[in-house]
Amino acid sequence: MPEEIPVPPWRRPKKAPPRMPLTQDRIVVTALGILDAEGLDALSMRRLAQELKTGHASLYAHVGNRDELLDLVFDIVLTEVEVPEPEPGRWAEQVKEMCRSLRRMFLAHRDLARIAIDRVPLGPNGMVGMERTMNLLRSGGLHDELAAYGGDLLSTFVTAEALEQSSRNPGTEQGREQAGVFADQLHGYLKSLPATSFPNLVHLAGPITSLDSDRRFELGLEIIIAGLLAGAGEAADDQVRTAGSPPAES
């Protein structure tokens, strides 16, 4: 390989390309890339600084600590969740569509459910999402307490289901194979129990050990939405009964 030829004195030497400025947005996007590629345990301030080719102390001018970083990462991905505008006659299906979109977001980003399980989405995207969710739930006739708790219940269910799915069905081929082996072993064990003492576990061994996460998710949605509709119906009946009651005697 020939030696490098010096630049003639009448020419300007090549300048090194300018560094990209360190901004909070760049830090968060880079952190999300590490999370998706390597998982939550690999995402440290030091690892992030290495990826950005800077000192980790420089990050603290833009992000207070790792916990704040995770808040920001969670908030940026919430833009991927679609919360529909209410349409008459489609309330139940629209709630399902919103939950499916939330689930897709979790499954698209490695370990994101671990971040979200104990975190309230109070960033700008999270606040907009919660407002739209409350608007959708209230459009179905849910009273205030039922709408507020129903939104929390749906979010918790989707997050927990995504977390369970990531542990039951790991992304690697080896992990999926191990999960399948364990499910088969558990199914065989439940079936081997004495039916006189454990009739329900023996009978339900198949559904209990099923790895069909999509089916389990849809069943869970049906149960929660049916409960919310029942609660809304009971509240409406109470209002009708109250309105039809004779005035109390003075």
How would you summarize what this structure contains?
It comes from Streptomyces violaceolatus. By secondary structure, this protein is mostly helical. Helix content is 65%, strand content 0%.
Explain what this protein looks like in three dimensions.
The chain is an all-alpha fold and 250 residues long. 65% of the residues lie in helices and 0% in strands. It contains twelve helices and no strands. It has helices at 24-38, 45-52, 56-59, 66-77, 91-108, 112-116, 124-138, 144-168, 173-192, 199-203, 205-208, 213-244. α8 (144-168) packs antiparallel against α12. The chain is flat and about 95 Å long. It starts with 23 loop residues before the first helix and ends in a 6-residue tail after the last helix. This is TetR family transcriptional regulator ActII. InterPro entries: Homeodomain-like_sf, HTH-type_TetR-like_transc_reg, HTH_TetR, Repressor_TetR_C, Tet_transcr_reg_TetR, Tet_transcr_reg_TetR-rel_C_sf. It comes from Streptomyces violaceolatus.
State the main characteristics.
250 residues; DNA-binding; single chain; 12 helices; mainly alpha
- What fraction, in percent, of the residue positions are helical? 55-70%
Largest sheet: none
Which structural class matches the secondary elements? mainly alpha
Low-confidence stretches: 239-243
Rg measurement, Å: 26 Å
Q: Provide a count of the helices.
A: 12
Average pLDDT, to the nearest integer?
88
How many β-strand stretches?
0
Shape: flat
